[in-house]
Amino acid sequence: MLMSVVAEQLELEMVRRLHVVGLLDRPTANRAVEQVPWSAALWGSMLEGSDRALAERVAPDLAVALWPPGVARPPQRWWRTPLGRALKLAVP
User: Fold this and answer.
1) How far apart are CA 63 and CA 24, in angstroms?
2) What is d(CA 27, CA 86) in angstroms, rounded to the nearest whole number?
3) What is the pLDDT of residues 22-69, one digit of tens each?
4) Smallest Cα–Cα separation from 82: which of 22, 29, 3, 15?
């Protein structure tokens, strides 16, 4: 599957978070990890596509999913990554 740099980074970010789930329930995490490449490619294309309204709707949800409020904040340098820049550009 050909993926953009944003989608590749999103895939890595999602898999990292699922590894935590794997500590509690490995079979469920393994099934979820199998879906990650497809999901990351889809969400990456929504962020980078020509439909800016769609990107604006998807970006806040992705940001909260990756960095839940009150749990963690991305380091400042993360916002300079391809995925960080794509999210920042898409949030109105």
Assistant:
1) 24
2) 32
3) 888 889 888 888 999 999 999 999 999 999 999 999 999 998 888 888
4) 3
For residue 63, the surrounding DSSP H or E stretch is helix 52-66
**pLDDT for 17-30, tens place per residue?**
888 888 888 898 88
**Which are the contacts of 8, defined by CB distance < 8 A and separation ≥ 6?**
40, 44
Distances (CA, A) of 69 to 46, 60, 80: 23, 12, 20
Q: Which two tokens stand for residue 1?
A: 């599957």
Compute the distance between CA of residue 59 and CA of residue 47 in angstroms, rounded to an integer.
7
